[in-house]
Structure prediction request, 71 residues.
Amino acid sequence: MNNDRMKELLKQALPRVSSDESARDLWPNVLLRIAQPAAAKVPWFDWALLAGLIGFAAFVPASIPVFLYYL
Prediction:
């Protein structure tokens, strides 16, 4: 194939970028999300899992290196 034929095929395969693409711009939404305060509340289930992990490590000390490996 020559270069002209390849250019024509690419033009057919890829749609043109229209002028309304700025309406789909996500950057303003990202900036708004960054400006929002972060939620600092930790769910109770996370604390329960942490307590279970510490309890299991207390009864089975050989599991501590395994847990550290998966961190």
